[in-house]
Amino acid sequence: MGVVVVMPEANAAAGTLGAAAAQSGRYFGTAIAAGRLGDSTYTTIAGREFNMVTAENEMKPDATEPQRGQFNFSSSDQIYNWATQRGMKVRGHTLAWHAQQPGWMQSLSGSSLRQAMIDHINGVMAHYKGKLAYWDVVNEAFNEDGSRRQSNLQATGNDWIEVAFRTARTADPSVKLCYNDYNIENWSYGKTQGVYNMIRDFKSRGVPIDCVGLQTHFTGGSSLPSNFQTTLTSFASLGVDVALTEVDVTNASTTQYAGLTQACLNVPRCVGITVWGVRDSDSWRSSENPLLFDGGGNKKAAYTSVLNALNAAGPVTPSPTPSGGTGSPSPSATPGGAKRIIGAQSGRCIDVPNASQNNGTRVQLYDCNGQANQAWTLTSSKQLTVYGSKCLDAAGSGNASAVQIYSCNGQANQQWNVNSNGTITGVQSGRCLDVWGTGNGQQVQIYDCNGQANQRFSLN
Ligand code: G3I
Question: Which of 133, 435, 441, 445 lies deepest, with the highest CB count within 10 Å?
Answer without folding.
Answer: 445
